[in-house]
Amino acid sequence: MQVVSSLKEKRRHTLSVSVKSFSMAALIYLALPVVIFFCGYLKIHWAILFSAAMIGAVYLTMRSMKKSPVSLKESERSIIIDPSFLLFVILLIPLILYWGGVSEFGSCSADHRVRYAILNDLVEYKWPVIYDFSTQQNPAVSAGLGSGSAAFAYYFAFWMVPALFGKIFGLMTARIVLFVWTGIGLFLISLGASLLYRRSSKMLFFCLILFAGFDVIPYLINRINGTGTTWEGWTEHLYIHSNFFQIMNVFNQSIPGWMITILLLLLPDGKSIGLLGGLMFCYSPWATIGILPMCICKIIMTSKAVGEKGDPKTFGSTEAGSHAGSKAFAIKPLLETLLTPQNIIPPVICLVLFGSLYTANPNATGADGFIWKFYTPLHFLKDYFLFVLFDFALWFMLIIRKHKKDPMLWTAFITLLILPVYKISIANDFLMRGSMAPMFMIGLYSVMFVTDNFEMCRNNKLELKKAIAGRLVLLLMVIAAYTPGNYILYSALNSYQMHFTDEPYVAEQDLIGSFGNIKEESELQTVKDQFFVYDYEDSIFFKYFAK
After folding, report:
1. By the 8 A CB rule, do 536 and 357 touch?
2. What predicted TM-score, i.e. pTM, was given to this entire model?
3. Measured distance CA(147)–CA(162) in Å, rounded
4. Residue 250 to residue 259: CA distance in whole angstroms
5. How far is CA 268 from the centre of its chain?
6. Which of 209, 216, 248, 269 is the 20 to 30 A CA-CA neighbour of 138?
7. Is it the case that residue 227 has pLDDT exceeding 90?
8. 3-state SS string over 105-131?
9. d(CA 195, CA 16)
10. Is 418 strand, coil or helix?
């Protein structure tokens, strides 16, 4: 009786999170900024129609999850969140975001020159944002732009909630809300990762933030050889960035992108995958291309499972993947899976609407072409081999034994092999953002593997062979974490200099300020190429959709 009473008492101080409750919270988090965009940017009839369609798709997805005959035990469909885990995550997330430069309260990367300007202009300007060049106060910038006007175009959906608060309470409130909103997203990701792991783990979340490829090895080789290099930019054109680096630079894409990847792994069927793809396109068009093969794989897997039993066994696990992958394929279940309102309407709306917005500026992508266009043959083969090996293949080799029957993991790996074939933009955004979903899946499975070994090593009764193997895995995680660890240290030191010393410090956000009043002439070309839409009245989006 005392043991039972103790267990009941412990349960009172814990939180239970189910796949359904997480999915509902995540879908609301992802859809809300898009609905605000519809209402704030579009003509009234489009705003009502598209908002109703998006809200309806979210509702149908949640109803579908409630009716799905998922054949798993209750303990596997929900997990108990320990209070110590909650405290750890709630304390760690603000530090991660502060060191990552979100909202520019501390040191931040050069990308925040435009991140700050985006939020500023969404707050200060009427929607849709249109710039009159006569407001430019820097004479050199004014001369470079001349007379006229331009519209603002970018994938800025992530800023819509903070911008709405900023419209009412001012820019500082918008920056605080952005920090909190990003933190909520990262907290939801921690819960989603815990659901996939089937238990909450502080180590899992800590490693997920620090996850990276083994960039330190080629970085050190380049340093020894005297070759130009950065911590993660050790090849000329092929890059996949660490999780923390993505928080530092593209939190507006990585936070929703990771959340959508987790939802894809957790969904019990393929009836709402179109909604996920449409939402991904709102936040990151290149990431949509990277997640597309995984979406197709998920639809085929769940259709096979339904064709055999009408009972898709799914919890985002390898067991589920191998179970679904073994079923006989049938056309009828595939059509029933594909032809749902939430699979058809959201992707069509998002592709047409946001596609017309993104393509309104034809200069945004810059350099593009097949990757061998930028290399000599031998140089390409060397860079490609090293890129594959150190960025993801080593991790894949460590985890594939446990997940060898998971079609989703194989799809992610093959996608990463193919994405480098084509380059778009000088920085190769196509690969950097296109790799987001497949790399996050490999990273998630890898940190699960690391966490398993960490827990195993805490057992003092391990045999010598397992103890050595477990510690070697932990050592590999430490090696991989060298790069994000350096970023964190660099940001922490710069933030200290910024706030607690008299040493001169140039804040990145002060170099542009607003696209409507660019402070430094050196930033003009970047703004013109990436964010301005000239002759916007003739573009499809601003002519037919925007108010």
Report:
1. no
2. 0.92
3. 31
4. 14
5. 21
6. 248
7. no
8. CCCCCCCHHHHHHHHHHHHHCCCCCEE
9. 11
10. helix
